[in-house]
């Protein structure tokens, strides 16, 4: 039977790193995982003897590139034919195919079989690992969680993230925007210094996404988001990619070899570039050395900070453009900003900081909150509040967030009719009436789009529903379309036929191309199955390690005794040596699947050696 869930958790499910906090004793505890780290790579690897999540998965990327999945966040809630996704697919060493309902599926070899996973499923594996870390810390079961998403995530990406939480066995209390979450962390940290309403610009540049958010924080802990801007495809990984491309070209020039076809080499180069990029944040040049990168040819090249900045200048400029856009949307001037707060690993890049300082005319940037943990911190505070925490600091917290992108439907001429404008505060409900454009039209079809372009198809298509109308001359039949966005930023739509004056028209709410309830149920079952497999694997490696350890112990004892016949009979020594040889043979020759063999060998070895060792003087 399940133990009672005691605490709620806050999860920053990042593109490259994730982080979890628990709310306990009126404060946030950021949890270290089994490797002792407070953030964990959002990476899952599949091997012939099990599944690895986090550091374990990331560390073996270069050896197993096609079955090591990262960037699930760049896939989640996107359709397979999305142009950006198609670009990413070209870069990923793992295979992505088109699944049902146009949902992308990742194909891996797992335990010797080919398996397909959705991004929701991969993300749920990361979430499960974080949940388990929290459970281990608390010594109790965790159910309730707040999960963060980039402010610029669209509706399908939010919904899919919520589904991933569900597959991980979590009750998702709320989906909250990452910069808003960081604002909570900042607001709480600064609560004693805030004497009036202040305007804070949160600049969050991570591994995969960029978000900028303009919020006001008042002395009563009310955080109001005024505007958000950003790009769900801009971050540290793009900077890594430009470096990889640059070095592929340099390598071609120097050695006349194209390494772009060698997945393993590219993977190793990418890992080295990411490391070099971090080094360039503290020193001004570095050398990348990789032994035998391709066909025995070593890689050794220098890169300066200036070169790195040049390679990525377009990305950096885009960040500043987004800051301008956000200020414009909030109808504020740069001098109205009281604090510029840095969040996300990529804000450690000196050029990014310098461009921001310059933009704000020499303003000092605030590094008061932890760039890697602030998002999880804020989510945990909200989780505490939503589960009825009574602490005053948190009870007073009020959050007012916004819709990141306009929502609307297409008109007969293909233009976008906006129903909810971007940056409207949430929750929100708006409606509009539409009429038929032909005589005896039978249905009015509503495509739902999200975005700012005036031609509907240039925006992000979210789904479609049809409303049946009675035959009538054109413009006589009417429908009312209602859009509502909840506190999670998730959209619900309905259409009602109005001509008859009764609300008996077709009401449609289920319009989205996303995982079905059955898909999710199956994933939940699978998650349980994979967990059992992982446990089995752990048990096997545990027994194997126990055997290896025991062999080493006995060997070192034998070595210590040496030829000292005063301590041991020659015959006993021989018996132990033979037993060690036998056990070592099993250790070296058996497969991990021969779990029973290890166990037998360990028992046998102990049976022989224990009595002899006990006799030692
Ligand atoms: P996300 O939330 O998108 O997972 P994070 O905020 O955890 O991302 O940031 C991870 C990104 O930050 C990675 O791309 C990483 O390479 C980059 N990063 C971390 N430290 C540094 C540094 N010192 N200099 C430059 N980039 C860094
Ligand atoms: Mg982040």
Describe the overall structure.
- It is a single chain.
- The protein folds into four domains: 9-234 and 315-400, 2-Layer Sandwich (Nucleotidyltransferase, domain 5); 236-314, Alpha-Beta Complex (Actin, Chain A, domain 4); 403-515, Substrate Binding Domain Of DNAk, Chain A, domain 1 (Sandwich); 530-614, Substrate Binding Domain Of Dnak, Chain:A, Domain 2, CATH 1.20.1270.
- The protein has 617 residues and is α+β, with helices and mostly antiparallel strands.
- β13 (198-205) and β14 form a beta hairpin.
- The protein is built from 16 helices and 26 strands.
- The model is unreliable at 502-508 (pLDDT under 50).
- It is globular and about 105 Å long.
- Strands 1, 2, 3, 4, 11 and 12 form a six-stranded mixed beta sheet that branches. It has a five-stranded mixed beta sheet with strand order 18-13-14-15-19.
- Magnesium ion binds next to loops.
- Adenosine-5'-diphosphate is lined by residues 14-17, 206-209, 235-237, 274, 277-278, 281, 344-346, 348-349, 372.
């Amino acid at each position: 039977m399940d133990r009672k869930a005691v605490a709620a958790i806050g999860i920053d499910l990042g593109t490259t790193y994730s982080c979890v906090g628990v709310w306990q004793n009126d404060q946030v505890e950021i949890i270290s995982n089994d490797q002792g780290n407070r953030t964990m790579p959002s990476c899952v690897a599949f091997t012939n003897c099990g599944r690895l999540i986090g550091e374990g998965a990331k560390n073996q990327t270069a050896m197993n590139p096609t079955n090591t999945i990262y960037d699930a966040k760049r896939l989640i809630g996107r359709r397979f034919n999305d142009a950006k996704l198609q670009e990413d697919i070209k870069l990923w060493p793992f295979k992505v195919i088109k699944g049902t309902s146009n949902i992308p599926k990742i194909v891996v070899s797992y335990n010797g079989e080919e398996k397909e996973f959705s991004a929701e499923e991969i993300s749920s594996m990361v979430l499960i690992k974080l949940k388990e870390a929290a459970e281990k810390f608390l010594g109790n079961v965790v159910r309730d969680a707040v999960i963060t998403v980039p402010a610029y995530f669209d509706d399908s990406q939010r919904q899919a993230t919520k589904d991933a939480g569900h597959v991980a066995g979590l009750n998702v209390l709320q989906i909250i925007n990452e910069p808003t979450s960081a604002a909570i962390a900042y607001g709480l940290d600064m609560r004693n210094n805030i004497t009036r309403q202040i305007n804070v610009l949160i600049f969050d540049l991570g591994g995969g996404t960029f978000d900028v958010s303009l919020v006001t924080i008042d002395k009563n802990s009310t955080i109001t988001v005024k505007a958000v801007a950003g790009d769900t495809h801009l971050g540290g990984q793009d900077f890594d990619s430009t470096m990889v491309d640059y070095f592929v070209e340099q390598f071609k020039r120097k050695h006349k070899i194209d390494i772009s076809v060698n997945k393993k080499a590219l993977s190793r180069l990418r890992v080295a570039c990411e490391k070099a990029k971090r080094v360039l944040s503290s020193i001004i040049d570095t050398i990348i050395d990789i032994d035998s990168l391709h066909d025995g040819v070593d890689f050794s090249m220098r890169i300066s900070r200036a070169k790195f900045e040049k390679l990525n200048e377009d990305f950096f400029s885009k960040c500043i453009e987004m800051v301008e856009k956000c200020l414009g949307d909030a109808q504020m001037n740069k001098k109205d900003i009281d604090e510029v707060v840095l969040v996300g690993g990529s804000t450690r890049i000196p050029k990014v900081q310098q461009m921001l300082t310059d933009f704000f005319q020499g303003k000092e940037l605030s590094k008061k909150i932890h760039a890697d943990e602030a998002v999880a911190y804020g989510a945990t505070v909200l989780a505490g509040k939503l589960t009825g925490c009574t602490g005053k600091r948190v009870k007073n917290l009020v959050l007012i967030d916004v819709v990141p992108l306009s929502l609307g439907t297409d008109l007969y001429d293909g233009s976008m009719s906006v129903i909810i404008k971007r940056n409207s505060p949430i929750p929100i409900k708006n409606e509009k009436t539409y009429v038929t454009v032909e005589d005896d039209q039978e249905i009015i079809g509503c495509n739902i789009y999200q975005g700012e372009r005036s031609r509907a198809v240039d925006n992000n298509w979210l789904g479609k529903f049809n409303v049946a109308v009675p035959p009538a001359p054109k413009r006589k039949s009417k429908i009312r379309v209602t859009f509502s966005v909840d506190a999670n930023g998730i959209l619900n739509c309905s259409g009602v036929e109005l001509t008859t004056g009764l609300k008996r028209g077709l009401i449609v709410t289920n319009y989205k191309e996303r995982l079905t309830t059955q898909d999710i149920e199956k994933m939940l079952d699978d998650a349980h199955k994979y967990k059992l497999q992982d446990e089995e694997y752990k048990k096997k490696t545990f027994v194997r390690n126990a055997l290896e350890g025991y062999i080493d112990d006995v060997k070192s004892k034998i070595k210590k005794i040496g030829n000292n016949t005063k301590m041991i009979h020659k015959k006993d020594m021989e018996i132990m040596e033979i037993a060690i040889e036998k056990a070592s043979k099993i250790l070296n020759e058996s497969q991990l699947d021969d779990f029973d063999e290890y166990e037998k060998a360990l028992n046998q070895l102990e049976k022989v050696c224990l009595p002899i060792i006990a006799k030692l003087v």
